[in-house]
User: Which sequence fits this backbone?
């Protein structure tokens, strides 16, 4: 009887040890994956410099597709007053939508002043009004809800909020 009890205890200890080992291995895999992802993120973000032309911007933007954090960092590199000279006559509706969406959902959370400046810079791009008219209604609805979400988080008495709301009229949302 004592031998059976000892065998059960030993089996339980082995099971506990194996479970602890398995959990540790899983944690290590997650840590390694997170470290590798962060390294790739750092390398990728340093690869993309501020664009000089719309083609440069679109090439980089497509390379960052699917990674909201990197797109946000990329937009933060831009100086808003350069946007009209970068895009000139080349701003397309899909690019406009994606930039506005990332400015509202990413940049505004980190730096609301930068987000407002980017939106102001976009509104100064030549043919902005024409490009805006080319946005599908579903995209406008999505941007409208993003705009509402950001606006609800802002201090209503702030001059920044007033600029933000004035830009909403400019974007016809």
Assistant:
């Amino acid at each position: 009887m004592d031998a059976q009890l000892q065998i059960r205890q030993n089996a339980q200890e082995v099971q506990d040890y194996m479970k602890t080992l398995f959990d540790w291995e899983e944690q290590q895999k997650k840590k390694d994956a997170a470290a590798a992802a962060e390294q790739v993120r750092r390398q990728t973000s340093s690869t993309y410099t501020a664009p000089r032309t719309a083609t440069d911007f679109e090439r980089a933007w497509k390379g960052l597709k699917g990674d909201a954090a990197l797109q946000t960092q990329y937009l933060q590199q831009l100086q808003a007053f350069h946007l009209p000279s970068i895009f000139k006559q080349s701003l397309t509706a899909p690019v406009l939508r994606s930039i506005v969406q990332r400015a509202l959902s990413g940049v505004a959370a980190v730096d609301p002043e930068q987000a407002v400046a980017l939106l102001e810079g976009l509104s100064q791009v030549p043919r902005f009004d024409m490009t805006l008219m080319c946005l599908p209604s579903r995209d406008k609805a999505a941007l409208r809800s993003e705009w509402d979400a950001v606006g609800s988080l802002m201090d209503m008495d702030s001059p920044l909020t007033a600029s933000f709301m004035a830009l909403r009229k400019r974007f016809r949302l």
Summary: The mean pLDDT is 87. DSSP finds nine helices and no strands in the chain. Residues 1-47 form one domain.
